[in-house]
Amino acid sequence: MIATSRKIAFIGLGIMGGPMAANLVKAGHTVTGHNRSRAAVDTLAAAGGRGADSIAEAVREAEVVITMVPADPQVKEIVLGEGGVLEHARPGSLLIDMSSITPQTSLEVAAAARDKGLRTLDAPVSGGEAGAIEGVLSIMVGGDPDDFADARPVFEALGTTIVHVGPHGAGQTVKAANQLMVAIHLQSLAEAVVFLENAGVDLEAALEVLGGGLAGSTVLARKRQAVLDRDFKPGFRIDLHHKDMGIVTDAARAVGTPLPVGALVAQLVASARARGDGGLDHSALLRGVERLAGRATH
Fold first, then answer.
1. Percentage above 70 pLDDT, the chain
2. Phi and psi of 4, rounded to 5°?
3. pLDDT per residue over 168-180, tens digit each?
4. N or C: which terminal CB in the chain sees fewer CB atoms within 10 Å?
5. What's the pLDDT score for residue 3?
6. Is 190 exposed, middle or buried (0-12, 13-18, 19+ CB in 10 A)?
């Protein structure tokens, strides 16, 4: 149990948000959740949280408001829109957006919140569904250092790597770099898997030894079983990674950074989505390599 319980509103109880909100409850915070689908709210209530039928109800008494939704349009709708967070949150409360969106939208939210007397942090996460469930997310935070310090006890219920990376928007910039690296790692894993199988090597043994050397990575550790089993139940959907690759390529262009490998992987992610794999886990990039190799996909 933590020393100081906070009143937290959590908006967006999906694959990531649901277990994150539950971990805040476990840490001793008072958590009121709102989600478009009622089932997710009921799940939080069963875990000891409270449910709200509207954003207004969720945020009215909150000291901290956390948003965790898929993309920029949803953030703008629930934060800036009619009936949204800024319309109903208490002045002085802290808004933490943990979605993965463009740095520009984070800056827009920060400016609008400042006008309403609210403080903000952009705090996207990495670690996927498993990291959210286990409370071991990596959290990259942009905003005022004092606000970061204020939010740290909240973050500690959600993750183990918690770093203030700079001013407003910096968290999203670092997340874009994260998504670039994850996509490239997933593509290289997919290519290695097809190469090894075509060569007749014991794939499970090969991935075990690769994981213990310089080729090892969190991507390999987390996704090894998924590729062995061809189990692509979504922890993080290709649709969302496609969105993120658009963010990083646009942001890189804005600061004059070439992404020769990243641009190619972005096209492969887009191709997977076009082939109907958008609802699968991003480890399903393996299916694209199998297609290129003339193999039937699983």
1. 99
2. -125, 115
3. 999 999 999 999 9
4. N
5. 56
6. buried
Nearest CA among 202, 190, 179, 276 for reference residue 227: 190
- In the set 175, 223, 233, 243, the catalytic residue is 175
Burial, 284: exposed, middle or buried (Cβ in 10 Å; 0-12, 13-18, 19+)?
Answer: buried
The residue behind tokens 């928007």 is 169
- H or E element at residue 84: none
Instruction: Give the per-residue pLDDT at 1.
Output: 46
Length in residues, the chain: 298
φ, ψ (nearest 5 deg) of residue 93? -75, 165
d(CA 153, CA 20): 14
Nearest alpha-carbon partner for 261 in 189, 193, 185, 190: 185
Instruction: Give per-residue pLDDT as tens, 89-134.
Output: 999 999 999 999 999 999 999 999 999 999 999 999 999 999 999 9
Cα distances (Å, whole numbers) of residue 180 to 37, 67, 175, 197, 264: 31, 23, 9, 26, 11
Structure tokens at 24: 């805040």
Q: Strand, helix or coil at 102?
A: coil
Which residues have CB under 8 Å from 148's CB, separation 6+?
121, 141, 164
Report how far residue 41's alpha carbon sits from residue 150's, in angstroms, rounded to the nearest whole number.
Answer: 27
Burial of 260 per CB tally in 10 Å (0-12, 13-18, 19+): exposed
Which pLDDT does position 45 carry in this prediction? Answer: 96
The Cα–Cα gap between 126 and 189 comes to: 18
Please report where in the chains the tokens 């979605």 appear, as a residue: 99
Q: What global pTM score does this model have?
A: 0.92
